[in-house]
Amino acid sequence: MTRGARAARIALLAISFGFLGLLLIAPLGAVLAQAFASGFGGWLSSLADPDTVASIRLTLLTAAIVVPVNTLFGIAAAWAVARFEFRGKSLLVTLIDLPLAISPVVAGLVLVFLFGAHGWFGGWLIERGFSVIFAVPGIVLATIFISFPYVARELIPLMQQQGSDDEVAALSLGARPWTSFVRITLPKIRWGLLYGVILCNARVMGEFGAVSVVSGHIRGLTNTMPLQVEILYNEYDFVAAFAVASLLALLAILTLVAKTLVEWRSRTAGR
Amino acid sequence: MVRGRIAAPSVLPGFGLTFGFTAFFLSAVILLPLAALVIRALEIPPGELLRLLADERALASYRLSFGAAGLAAAINAIFGFVVAWSLVRYDFPGRRLLDTMIDLPFALPTAVSGIALVTVFSPGGWLGGPLALAGVEVAYTRLGVVVALVLIGLPFVVRSVQPALVEVHRDLEDAAESLGAGGFAVFRRIILPTVLPALATGFTLAFARGIGEYGSIVFISGNLPFETEITPLLIVTRLEQFDYAGAAALGFFMLATSFVMLLAINAVQGWGQRRLGLGAGR
């Protein structure tokens, strides 16, 4: 390596480390430092607050509904798009990606116009005692909207690349469609599927903007964990806000670890 | 394709079921709600709609949202390129860890990024303190909005540029160097042309995401009307004041912007493919 190349290497690495240190490491460190500012006991007692427990429960409930729904959708969409030629396919793929381009606030807003008190269906539903906006169904719908593409996006290119020869062979040998799907398709796509589910789950549990518009911020009832972080922070209860934030940061780190493992597994499994 | 059929014939089963479910779910969950917003906005008389869209406060919010997103995407194009270069070309301790960390802004909930950035950049914070001494205020200023958007946009640029950098022909670089080209000439004549489409894609993706970003910004920006108020926040404010027409108009504008950005992303990617395809044929 020439002296110039070595100098460039040192300079570029220093810039990279400096930039990522300021932008990624410092904020992550700040969350943890603030969360444990009054010790482990303080952290634990912040999390034991009933409203915080309720927010954790709501976030888990939302994920338990939304992730399976979007996984099912992702598999169906990938099967239709990757296995068949049909008119309007590229339009369908574009529409599947659409939520990624839309502001989360707009995602919440559209639900207000459908299900709010003055929305298309809101009045009718509210007369019958069923609230969507400022209630759990609105949170679930908003979360489905914003996390909708994640599984489909991972599966479509994977299944297109894998082709359908194995399935055709199984079917021509008399396998039932469901058997062929469970025994051949699922094992082939499992790592990509898991990857999509992990990313989808991270987005679902962490969503803020869309949920914030439809939730109404009712303590103990319609606050998810990110909304609970906001409320506690705005009340200057920093230890509690960062305690909840540290749980979400932990979720993010686990997501990255799982993602790395899955990438590594799918590379070695592909060989 | 056979006339009168949606799909070309195939021995594989399940087209009707999966396509039907996909189309139904997409329509119910995405298209119907979007239609509700569009119709709501178009019910507003045109003159009134224009007045709501061109309102002074709205104009100030567009300037901030688009300006900060553009500036942040440009900063990311430069630093994201350096980071991608370091990850692809250099081997150093902690490279795998750093590579994994790039996706942190994707995985970290935006509200957490938001309060973390304020803590670091407020005058009492680790970085805000030294910066305040130097006369630079980040928290509760427009600069804070840019910082939040740099964080959010970083993975888009790095993840777009990384695969393109792998594709750069090292032998071309070596040949150029052996013919006496300096480091900068190699960068400008060989590396940049190959990576430019990916860089443009990353810039556009980061810009598109930045325009709509909400969670990471609202904590650090201070949310002052005309000063540090982004368009998504103005939508939320209008909604909280029960100004549904105002919220619908701005939401409609943001939605139209999203479609334009999708077209722009497709155009940039198409340009990149044509450009690289041409380069290979020469």
Task: Describe the structure concisely for a colleague.
The complex is a heterodimer of chains A (271) and B (282). Chain A has 271 residues and is mainly α.
Low-confidence runs of chain B? none
- The assigned CATH architecture of chain B is Orthogonal Bundle
The CATH superfamily of chain B is: MetI-like
Find the CATH superfamily of the largest domain in chain A.
MetI-like
The secondary structure category of chain A is: mainly alpha
What number of structural domains do the residues of chain A give? 2
CATH class type of the largest domain in chain A? Mainly Alpha
Reported for the largest beta sheet of chain A, the result is: none
How would you sum up the major sheet of chain B?
none
Instruction: Output the helix-strand order of chain B.
Output: HHHHHHHHHHHHH
Domain unit count of chain B? 1
Question: How would the global form of chain A be characterised?
Answer: globular
Rg of chain A, please? 23 Å
| Mean pLDDT, all residues of chain B | 91
Content of β-strand of chain B? under 5%
CATH topology-level name of chain B: MetI-like fold
* Largest binding interface between chains: A-B, 94 and 86 residues
CATH architecture of the largest domain in chain A: Orthogonal Bundle
Reading off the top of the CATH hierarchy, the class of chain B is best stated as Mainly Alpha
CATH topology of the largest domain in chain A: MetI-like fold
